[in-house]
């Protein structure tokens, strides 16, 4: 029996203002997208903003449904739109902000497992890392230099 340890690296910024100056506007676009989320069932709102290598910025937010599983997370709403509109563009980075109407979110909230899997697909397809910044409504912001850091044991096309 052999033990395998997996390490990952995140970088933590004290707050929005501590981010690099070119990242702040992208996160603010994620805030705006979050404010447009349709989340009447969970009251949990998420916004995502993607910067593409063609200069386009794509935003998305969570869209819920009375049939709960039919809803979709913000990250996948945004990345599927990007994939459908700009299939040849590379995603440089993604900014995510999550908030709750029930209680304030003040710590970094990472993308869910299903969204990590979806983002992984595009990172692998484009063969360059996608940088990910994520936060609550306020407070610290986490940066991952690649989706791979958030999903070390990825299920990908090589196993098919
Ligand atoms: N949600 C996202 O939009 N992104 C995530 O990564 C986690 C969860 C949404 C889905 C649902 O509308 C609400 O947040 C509560 O789970």
Explain the overall architecture:
Helices cover 24% and strands 22% of the residues. The chain has 160 residues and is of the alpha+beta class. It has one domain (20-134): Cytidine Deaminase, domain 2 (3-Layer(aba) Sandwich). A 6-stranded mixed sheet has the order 1-6-5-4-2-3. The chain is globular, with a radius of gyration of 16 Å. Tetrahydrodeoxyuridine is lined by residues 39, 42, 44, 46, 62, 64, 71, 73-75, 111-112, 115.
Weakly predicted, low-confidence segments: none
Outline: globular
> N- to C-terminal separation?
27 Å
Chemical compounds bound to the protein? tetrahydrodeoxyuridine
Number of helices: 3
User: What is the arithmetic mean of pLDDT?
Assistant: 98
Give the fraction of residues assigned to helices: 10-25%
What is the domain tally? 1
The CATH architecture comes to 3-Layer(aba) Sandwich
Q: What structural class do you assign from the helix and strand content?
A: alpha+beta
- CATH topology type: Cytidine Deaminase, domain 2
Q: Gyration radius, to the nearest Å?
A: 16 Å
* Quaternary form: single chain
């Amino acid at each position: 029996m052999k033990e395998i340890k997996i390490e990952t690296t995140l970088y933590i910024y004290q707050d929005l203002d501590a981010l690099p100056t070119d990242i702040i506007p992208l996160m603010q676009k994620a805030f705006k997208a979050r404010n447009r989320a349709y989340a009447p069932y969970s009251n949990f709102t998420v916004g995502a903003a993607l910067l593409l290598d063609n200069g386009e910025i794509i935003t998305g937010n969570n869209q819920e449904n009375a049939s709960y599983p039919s809803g979709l997370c913000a990250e996948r709403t945004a990345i599927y739109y990007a994939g459908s509109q700009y299939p040849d563009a590379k995603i440089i980075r993604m900014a995510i902000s999550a908030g709750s109407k029930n209680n304030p979110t003040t710590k970094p909230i990472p993308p869910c497992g299903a969204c990590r899997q979806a983002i992984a697909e595009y990172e692998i397809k484009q063969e360059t890392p996608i940088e990910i910044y994520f936060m609550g409504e306020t407070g610290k912001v986490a940066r991952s230099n690649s989706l791979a850091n958030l999903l070390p044991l990825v299920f990908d096309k090589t196993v098919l």
